[in-house]
Amino acid sequence: MLGKIAEWLKILVVLAFLWPVLVQCRGNIRHYKFNVMMTNVTRLCSTKPTVTVNGKFPGPTIYAREDDTLLIKVVNQVHYNLSIHWHGVKQLRTCWADGPAYIAQCPIQPGKSYVYNFTVTEQRGTLFWHAHILWLRATVHGAIVILPKHTLSYPFSKPKKEVVIILGEWWKSDVEAVVDEATQSGLPPNISDAHTINGLTGPVSTCSSQEGFNFLVEPGKKYLLRIINAALNEELFFKIAGHNLTVVEVDAAYVKPFETETILTAPGQTTNVILSTNHKNGKYSMVTSPYMDSPILVNNKAATATLQYIGTNNSSTTFTVPPPRNATSTAFNFMDSLKSLNSKKYPAKVPIKINHSLFFIISLGLNPCASCYRGFRIVAAINNVTFVMPSVSLLSTHFFNKSGVFTDDFPGNPQNAFDYTGVPPQNLRTMEGTKLYRLEYNSNVQLILQDTGLLSPENHPMHLHGFNFFVVGRGKGNFNPKEDSKKFNLVDPVERNTINAPSGGWVAIRFRANNPGVWFFHCHLEVHTTWGLKMAFVVNNGNGPNESLLPPPKDLPKC
After folding, report:
1. Could you give the residue ranges of the DSSP H alpha helices within 109-229?
2. Which of 126, 153, 231, 287 is 20 to 30 A from 197 via CA?
3. What is the pTM of this model?
4. Distance CA 334, CA 181 (A)
5. Residue 313's pLDDT band (boundaries 50, 70, 90)?
6. How far is the C-alpha of 396 from the C-alpha of 103, rounded, in Å?
7. Are 115 and 553 in contact (CB under 8 A)?
8. Is the CB of residue 284 less than 8 Å from the CB of residue 241?
């Protein structure tokens, strides 16, 4: 009897020793509550009612650790329909929590709520959340910080402090009114009035009293800056006077570290950098400004903030000059420097054998519109298909095998080839439809994204929900499959969830379709998404429950 008791005591001691490890492997459950409400916000010496989360702009930061489960209750207290997207979270088998309205769910109606329930798996780094209906993400957005497992450390020296920096845009007018006016006219909406750093513009000529974000640092330390581009329609440069930045991660994927004076980030992208405070004292300007290398109207006003060394009081600020808005060489040098870390702990698992080889051309077009200002409406398309949003959830339609809502005949290649970056065809009309492309579970996809000169060449930051992908190639002009494929980087290409299809050029990505559901793929310039530059992939279930989409939650909103 005593022997059995001794054996049980040994087992209990072992379990007590292993319990912290077992808990860490399983992850914790973290609860958040988002009250979406109207809040009066003052910027540029003007106050307006603004849609916010918990009364904050930007909204609260979500903190989690790899393998944690998040339960985020979103309560809609405004008069708009609402949904929240957890941008970059892979949502393995939990497409119901992905968030895009009428794709993964019906929106949360005014006065209703929905609990987003998902587990962060095989991810660590900086992502962000934002509204995914109308243009509400202009102010409904915030950071997601995913810390590594307790058993893992950063692949770089631990910083003294971590700071979230969110870049955005601000309109003095009601953003939804701006969009409605543009929709009625068929023309582009008015550009924003200012850029922001953590919701603040810094002093501007029309409002010198407008405050800016102030960041206090100690000399001789290292700080991790988690930089997020939450702007609606503009790629942005970011730099700090007198300091270089060491890039260590993009889109929650580690990269080979490299030093730069300026970073480039497109809407939907995140960049983690190490800042070394190599001065003894002083104030230094932080600036974000637009990048646009096409004849497209953008808000050319820079937003400013201040990096201030502790103990510095009345010294003057050291300023920096932002790059020219058409600084293509600066942009390309930055993008060319991005390589996956590709270490033993974090290998670059690039798909080699391809099952689906897709070629998507991105274009603008003109469709007839009798009520519009000039008798036509500006639209956007992929392979000449302007996506029509349904009035019900595509995911529910797919899961319950309903018909009549979408077709799965989205063209994998252009139906009519032409000189994509040369002289455009005379007919600029597009097809309209709710067309999806179907993928088998675990199939490998190669996708070429080709910009065109239809109406105007332009950069298009394309975001894929539910997956990361590898950027294996990029070039100018028309993609040449025989020659350009030979130059693909299949060893350490950067891993992302959002990538620029360059103005007048192409980009090649690869991913494995190992996540069942209906996954949105769209331009993250909100104006282009509104015009129809979007589609979705349907990924079938695999074998067994672990490769199948989970059933819908009981509180899933109804249309």
Report:
1. 175-185
2. 153
3. 0.95
4. 37
5. confident
6. 9
7. yes
8. yes
